[in-house]
């Protein structure tokens, strides 16, 4: 049965409102898969797939670390243009690069991951939290108990290891994963040996992995909608993510054109 994560944190519960490359091919950037504003595409959703921006500009990985890395110059310029904190944007950009490596042809855009980060936790800053240099929010971001009083009941699946609740599951971290979902898609982006949903690099890669696994080729509008719907089956959520992703892509492209 599909779990209902309708706005566990993203819409209303914690009061978060959602309002809201050009890239040098010599740096290995993929061309954006589409252009123009996305249109309403699904009678089921009424949500629109956004224009997914290309993965971030790459820099050559260090010999000791073969993972792709986002260009810090691109990060700084795009953070300024979009208002996304640099630490969070670094995680989203790297997740897009890792996601495309892991699932070639997925077409995951950094801006889709960033849009989910915005709606879920305001990039790790919801309710006074602050994202540290280590990528962890302080205090930890933990959603309400899914005990059936407001949201569908989801009994504990992790003995409270991730969410601190041995009776009911709660969504955790800046990308708001349920413990069971994290057990399916969790990733260790930092290489410290632990896949941690409270750490934004790990969580962002987990998000990319889930979206690609569910949607396949995310440049196909219906696939993008289905992937985001699996993340949170809520029409308003899908629309908010699409709007934010489009806004981020437009801001980044305008910034690149001005440089």
Question: What is this structure's SSE topology?
Answer:
Layout (H helix, E strand, L loop, with lengths): L57 E2 L9 E2 L1 H11 L3 H17 L7 H12 L8 E2 L5 E2 L40 H7 L14 H16 L5 H11 L3 H24 L1
Antiparallel strand pairs: 1-2, 3-4
Describe this structure in words.
There is one protein chain. This protein is mostly helical. Helix content is about 40%, strand content about 5%. It has 7 helices and 4 strands. The protein has helices at about 70-80, 85-100, 110-120, 180-185, 200-215, 220-230, 235-259; strands at about 60, 70, 130, 135-140. The strands form 2 sheets. Strands 1-2 form a two-stranded antiparallel sheet. Strands 3-4 form a two-stranded antiparallel ribbon. α1 (about 70-80) crosses α2 (about 85-100). The longest helix is centred in the last third of the chain and has 24 residues, at about 235-259. The N and C termini lie far apart (about 50 Å).
Radius of gyration: 17 Å
Percent of residues in beta strands?
under 5%
What is the overall number of helices?
Answer: 7
Largest sheet: 2 strands, antiparallel
Q: What percent of the residues sit in helical stretches (DSSP H or I)?
A: 25-40%
Give the CA-based shape: globular
Topology as a string of helices (H) and strands (E):
EEHHHEEHHHH
Query: Largest beta sheet: what is the strand line-up?
Result: 1-2
Task: Give a count of the beta strands, DSSP E runs of length 2 or more.
Answer: 4
Provide the residue-averaged pLDDT.
79
How far apart lie the N and C ends? 49 Å
The poorly predicted ranges are: 1-48, 60-64
């Amino acid at each position: 049965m599909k779990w209902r994560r309708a706005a566990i944190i993203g819409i209303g519960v914690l009061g978060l409102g959602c309002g809201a490359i050009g890239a040098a091919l010599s740096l290995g950037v993929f061309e954006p898969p589409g252009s123009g504003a996305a249109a309403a595409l699904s009678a089921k959703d009424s949500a629109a797939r956004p224009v997914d921006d290309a993965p971030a500009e790459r820099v050559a990985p260090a010999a000791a670390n073969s993972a792709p890395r986002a260009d810090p110059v691109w990060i700084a310029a795009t953070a300024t243009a979009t208002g996304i904190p640099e630490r969070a944007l670094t995680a989203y950009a790297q997740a897009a690069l890792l996601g495309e490596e892991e699932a070639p042809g997925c077409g995951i855009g950094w801006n889709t991951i960033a849009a989910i980060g915005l709606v879920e936790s305001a990039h790790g800053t919801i309710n006074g939290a602050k994202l540290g240099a280590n990528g962890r929010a302080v205090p930890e971001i933990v959603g309400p108990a899914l005990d059936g009083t407001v949201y569908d009941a989801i009994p504990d699946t992790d003995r409270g290891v991730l969410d601190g609740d041995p009776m009911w599951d709660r969504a955790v971290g800046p990308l708001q994963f349920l413990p069971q979902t994290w057990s399916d898609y969790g990733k260790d982006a930092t290489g410290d040996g632990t896949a941690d949903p409270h750490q934004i690099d790990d969580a962002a890669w987990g998000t990319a992995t889930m979206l690609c696994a569910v949607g396949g080729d995310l440049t196909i509008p219906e696939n993008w909608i289905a992937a985001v719907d699996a993340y949170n089956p809520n029409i308003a959520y899908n629309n908010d993510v699409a709007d934010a992703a489009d806004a981020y892509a437009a801001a980044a492209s305008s910034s690149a054109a001005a440089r």
